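Write out the 3D structure for:
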Amino acid sequence: MNQGFASLIRPQSTMSTITFSHIHPRSLTLLKSSNVLRVLSFPQIRIKQPTVGCSQSTPWESSPVTYAPTETAGDNFLKKTTNLFETLKSNNTAEVPVTNTEDVTDSSNQPVVQLQFHKWPMWLLGPSLLLATGMVPTLWIPLSSIFLGPNIASLLSLVGLDCIFNLGATLFLLMADSCARPKQPSQACKSKAPFSYQFWNMVATVTGFIFPLMLLYGSQKGFIQPQLSFISFAILLGPYLLLLSVQILTEMLTWHWQSPVWLVTPVVYEAYRVLQLMRGLKLGAELSAPAWIMHTIRGLVSWWVLILGIQLMRVAWFAGFTTRASQQQSAAADG
């Protein structure tokens, strides 16, 4: 019995290979024998042995490396992964964005240089225009050619001279605003005037506007003697009041738009105002104006010279303040 059992177990490996390689559907009837079933039951108990002990595959099975890579395959996979990322950092790939960046930089700098080149003539054109429209008509055109006496024609002629200056001053301020803009068009340029500056500037302007009107009211009511006619007062101080109104409107617009020219706007108008009032002194002598109106004009000249000096002090303060702010920013950036 033991020998028979041993004889059946000896060809176990052979039986395992034969049964899986030569079994056909027609031979299934041969398995009805109990002995054969006993023989086939032993390999079923030891099914786990090929997964543990067998390291070689049969010829008809595919290579197991595809499903379970060895250490060498894993290293190759990682190397290919690093190579994949290295290809993204290749020389050809790096050269393309650098070239594109340089092209973009050159294309962005080119219009900026051209824009700055067009701004350079404004440094001379703006002041020249201000000189031609403001000083030349007042200094070189004789008053006798435009002043015919205390009438409407003389008043309109004087107003025309001031309108020519106002046109030149507006163009000058536009040029100054263009020169003050940053080099990069995308950067916003907003310069807000301090509230204290706006307040005191309006106080000075309103004072210079209301004081002559109060004197005119006193003269018309008989409080100031001798009386001065309205047309004579309009010739002497009418253009002054009109241009002062234009200055107030211009300053309010520069404050609202936050233009960088808010600091030089009063300087432009106040410098011409001194010349305008000096012209009024000459016309007062031709009109034989009362002494009180002549003293009023001299007082206005002194007032606006004082205000002009204060404005220039503010320009110097603002320049020093800007320099200190830029130094602090550079020190903070270095630190």
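The first helix runs from residue 2 to 9.
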